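Notes to self after the Tuesday call (sharing in case useful).
The group wants a holo model before anyone commits to mutagenesis around the pocket. I volunteered. Ligand is MGD. Logging inputs and output together so the record is complete.
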Amino acid sequence: MKEQKRSTIGIAPYGGSAGGWGALKAVADALRGQMSVKQDVIALFKVNQPQGFDCPGCAWPDPQHTSSFEFCENGAKAVSWEATSKRTTPEFFAAHTVSELWQRNAFELEGEGRLTHPMKYDPASDTYQPVDWDTALQEIGEHLQGYQDPNSVEFYTSGRASNEAAFLWQLFAREYGTNNFPDCSNMCHEPTSVGLPESIGVGKGTVELDDFDHCDLVLCIGHNPGTNHPRMLGTLREVAKRGATIVAINPLRERGLERFTSPQSPIEMLALGSTKLASTYYKVRVGGDAAMLKGVMKILLSMHEEAQAKGDAGVIDEAFIREHTQGFEALKADLDATDWDHILKLSGMDRKEIQNIARLYADAERTIICYGMGITQHQYGTQNVQQIANLLLLRGNIGKQGAGICPLRGHSNVQGDRTVGITEIPAPALLDRIENVFGFTPPREHGHGAVAAIQAMRDGKVNALLCLGGNLAEAISDPQTTFPAMRKLDLVVHMATKLNRSHLLLGKHNYLLPVLGRTETDMQQSGAQSVTVEDSMSMVHASRGTLTPASPHLKSEPALVAALAKATLPDTVVDWDKMVRDYNNIRDAIEAVFPDFHQYNERVKTPGGFRLPNAASVRVWNTPSGRAEFKVMQGINEDPRSLKCHDLVLTTLRSHDQYNTTLYGLNDRYRGVTGRRDVLFINADEAEKRELRVGDQVNVVALDPQGNPTSRRMENLTIVVLDMAPGSVGAYYPEANVLVPLDSHDTKSGIPAYKNVPVAMERVQVPSVTSGARR
Ligand SMILES: Nc1nc2c(c(=O)[nH]1)N[C@H]1C(S)=C(S)[C@@H](COP(=O)(O)OP(=O)(O)OC[C@H]3O[C@@H](n4cnc5c(=O)[nH]c(N)nc54)[C@H](O)[C@@H]3O)O[C@H]1N2
Ligand SMILES: Nc1nc2c(c(=O)[nH]1)N[C@H]1C(S)=C(S)[C@@H](COP(=O)(O)OP(=O)(O)OC[C@H]3O[C@@H](n4cnc5c(=O)[nH]c(N)nc54)[C@H](O)[C@@H]3O)O[C@H]1N2
Ligand SMILES: [Mo]
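Result:
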């Protein structure tokens, strides 16, 4: 009988396309587990419709005036996860001590269902106990009033919060006296928010959905739409069907970028067909993007020179560069000085491949570049983003139809939260406007982002952490530093829908406050309320929940933030009750502070909403020079560890069954993993070199800047061979955060280098068992 390693259980290559029947089955499984059939039908049909709620799944925009719902497997999972009939009640908390719950993982904790009551931690019994709202609010307010320094309080925001909740949150924090706004953006697209204003004068993408109907080429760098932005597959499918070219650049061959069966297309579903998406797929080494981008630009410039020598116009847009940009000569000098050996070594690609990308780019009249966490979560995340902008500017691909830059935002309103003031580095003009509109003087001093907030906690400088959603403790790097740092806090307040491990990291005084989700009816004095969100393409639209709230004790986020503010600020100058009575009043206030939202309440009634102005998309450059700027990156990736090209660089990945730290299940269908997450992805040659086979076990050890092993390690990971770039390995987030030191982050934006962890491997000897043996 054939020998099978015990550890190959649940590992088998996936042969199908993305989407299709597999997606439908996955949704059916998720719905059966989490919610009743009647509700799911109602809920799903109202997602992303003019009258329904915005899908909490991702920030990809909707086609305007959508009449039938846009089907998406992971959106359906996100909705059913929130609309579950399971409840985490006071009885549940009474039956389990916090120490006991701490032993459970995210899947088990959130799997208990929705939080139902406000809870307060009781040290004597080591349990969370119910507390009435008034007592909780009053006590929290008293604690906050007691701290001498407002900058000893951190106001965390997760990108799920609506514009209305986020606006009130920043107003509360600033009236309290701090700009400490650690938020999930700091771990996500901060390099976009910091890098693009320097390059093109706006910290957001420049494309609209319509541009995908006009482009000739889409470059998809470092994002995985099959899992994280499934509705984008529908757009890419149309691009592919139209005959335009899609090129994927990613260390992993992700199924979602290769082939897609549209659940909206009955013909494809019945014929078991699929649409081929990426016409070419290039595997860049983890952390090798700047090298690849510089290589492409270098070839573009030499193609240009050759063409001009022959008397042709050439491939870069000289007129655009002359009229609209500055810094071209410096960029050229930098590219000339970058040598090919270095580029090829760090990108892990061969020169022919880089030439092919340059050729396709030169031949395309209109190019869109999409990118995600594969670009941003690096020591050089900001500079990676700026190299993408450089490449686009060389051919005038910003501010023309069918072209532009397209960062794939994460949480469904992470962009909107930034727009309405969640930032630790507020522009003076923003603070002036807040002062003019509300009449209090907001603090001018810059505050903490996510990494700085944890560092301040570690250093004992923080009294309180207040979290508007999210799971900061698990989302941030370095649990070895983060967990003890959080345990030093005096006050911890979480506003959440479901239980997670951040809630179990106790300070001295702890409150867990349950809130309404986006799918639920939000009833206030003036009636049922809508909130608004902004998608990845600057479209602002309304979202109105329709389901009965999970418990009668829930507060909406805007109402809870207002109540906290009132309890904390006895002399507040803001009329919080008016804001909560009717959210139109919050939107009027947003409009007063941010003139781009003019006629907010009126315009948001239009189905599909309205687009916020985006200067770069009409070639107005709000940079200091008034021009788009080519930004030079010194070197390629001067992390000494990567330069030495040590054993391997590890990247942290999301599975297909997870939403950030929320685990819907333990499968990763497209990568062929079922029922487990303790795996290490590696390419066949790298495995071969080390005599490793699928199912073998290894320990992964993070290296220090000198390339020496550290105490950061993950033990007993099982080898899964995938088609991926040499020199690269992958493991799941958040588990792999133990390998990422807090201090390993982009110096410009502060984003943790989650996707750039040099590691070594140690083989673990495990006994093999005969297949069919009882387990
Ligand atoms: N279902 C689901 N949807 C989600 C989320 C979720 O967890 N689940 N999260 C939401 C959030 S908050 C975000 S930010 C987005 C995240 O969406 P993505 O940006 O797609 O995020 P990741 O899955 O972390 O990584 C994306 C890709 O980067 C590649 N990659 C890794 N390292 C590198 C590298 O060095 N270079 C390059 N070029 N590529 C690399 C990986 O192989 C992977 O395919 O999705 C949002 N939508
Ligand atoms: N190693 C590694 N680490 C990463 C990443 C990575 O790729 N690799 N990605 C990073 C990225 S891009 C991000 S955005 C962060 C994610 O950081 P966070 O946004 O902090 O984390 P989530 O896991 O999305 O938060 C999940 C929790 O949010 C709460 N929640 C859900 N819906 C609501 C709601 O409507 N209201 C409220 N108040 N609470 C709600 C629930 O209690 C749930 O447990 O993680 C980052 N960390
Ligand atoms: Mo994100």
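Two things stood out.
Residues 87-188+413-611 form a domain with the Rossmann fold fold (CATH 3.40.50.740).
The pocket of MGD (ligand 1) is lined by residues 57-58, 74, 188, 221-224, 227-228, 249-252, 254, 284, 286-287, 289, 372-374, 408, 410-411, 651, 653-654, 658-660, 755 (CB under 6 Å).
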